[in-house]
Task: inverse folding
């Protein structure tokens, strides 16, 4: 592959969850060349919404707490005008009326995102100044800086396969980050039933949300049921029908609710149970390699956003005015071949 300027290939970000999108948006707004890669067909990670039978379900994150949003993030998101307070009176958290997935979709506008792109391999290009990442379709992509914005176990798998005997200290730190899984059941009330005063912890149910009552459009009767850690760990790989039958019976017996049209969602890396306090990790290579996300800065959404914003400032600062000018001057120069 021929490139006119191998010194100005931009930043490659693997993972288009909320941390990857936040980083990409800040870098793009600062004039950086950014390319995102996401193995799923949609962006946003746990900010996910499912549509079916005319209803909407948020099946990951149910709402956003303004206290978890850094000032710069909230200022940016507020301009999008798609977040509103919940209407069910449970808290003052924010939702998207047409589903939480609308937020990451809005953040991705104007950014190059390769969806359904599973990165399988990382290589260092000639001279050590170019990153080469290969996807499962056999394609290769090039950049000067590389960021892994994916769960630590996935980052470890990618790094182990690409650099089996290198980056030992980085891998050891990533192994310190632990996650807990969550099984989530999406269901529909068989008839209109009052449940606002019944939303409470009923083993093994960790939370039950009526999507319509929290403020989502066209979603009355659409229930999202998150199951607790103990149950999710025990039954994560159990047959779907077995889990759904048991939960339907529990909801009926303990909560008095008749539900139907059940679907099971499995979140393997649902919540960080042991995060790092650092905002990100960096590899000591010729070309910068970083790992960041919700496993950093104390974990969760707050940690993910702090991680992304801190790394964005680091990357923007690291690109000097001289490097930018040199990159512009070399455009149209002699082509270099990378195999």
Result:
């Amino acid at each position: 592959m021929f490139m006119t300027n191998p010194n100005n290939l931009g930043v490659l970000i693997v993972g288009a969850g909320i941390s990857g999108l936040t980083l990409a948006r800040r870098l793009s707004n600062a004039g950086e060349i950014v390319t995102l890669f996401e193995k799923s067909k949609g962006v946003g990670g746990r900010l996910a919404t499912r549509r079916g039978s005319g209803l909407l379900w948020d099946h990951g994150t149910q709402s956003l707490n303004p206290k978890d949003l850094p000032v710069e993030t909230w200022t940016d998101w507020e301009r999008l005008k798609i977040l509103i307070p919940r209407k069910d009176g449970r808290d003052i958290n924010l939702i998207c009326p047409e589903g939480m997935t609308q937020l990451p979709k809005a953040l991705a506008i104007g950014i190059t995102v390769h969806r359904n792109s599973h990165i399988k391999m990382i290589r260092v290009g000639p001279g050590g100044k170019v990153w080469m990442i290969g996807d499962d379709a056999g394609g290769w992509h090039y950049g000067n800086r590389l960021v892994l914005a994916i769960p630590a176990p996935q980052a470890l798998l990618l790094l182990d396969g690409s650099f089996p005997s290198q980056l030992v200290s980085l891998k050891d730190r990533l192994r310190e980050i632990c996650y807990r899984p969550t099984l989530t059941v999406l269901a529909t009330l068989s008839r209109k039933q009052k449940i606002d005063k019944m939303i409470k912890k009923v083993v093994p149910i960790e939370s039950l949300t009526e999507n319509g009552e929290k403020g989502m459009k066209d979603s009355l009767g659409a229930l999202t049921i998150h199951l607790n850690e103990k149950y999710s760990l025990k039954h994560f790989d159990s047959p779907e029908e077995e889990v759904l039958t048991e939960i339907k019976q529990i909801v009926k017996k303990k909560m008095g609710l008749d539900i139907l049209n059940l679907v099971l969602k499995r979140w393997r890396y649902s919540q960080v149970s042991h995060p790092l306090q650092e905002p990100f990790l960096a590899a000591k290579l010729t070309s910068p390699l970083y790992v960041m996300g919700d496993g950093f800065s104390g974990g969760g959404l707050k940690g993910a956003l702090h991680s992304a914003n801190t790394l964005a400032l680091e990357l923007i600062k690291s690109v000097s005015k001289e490097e930018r000018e040199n990159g512009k001057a070399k455009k149209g120069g002699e082509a270099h071949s990378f195999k």
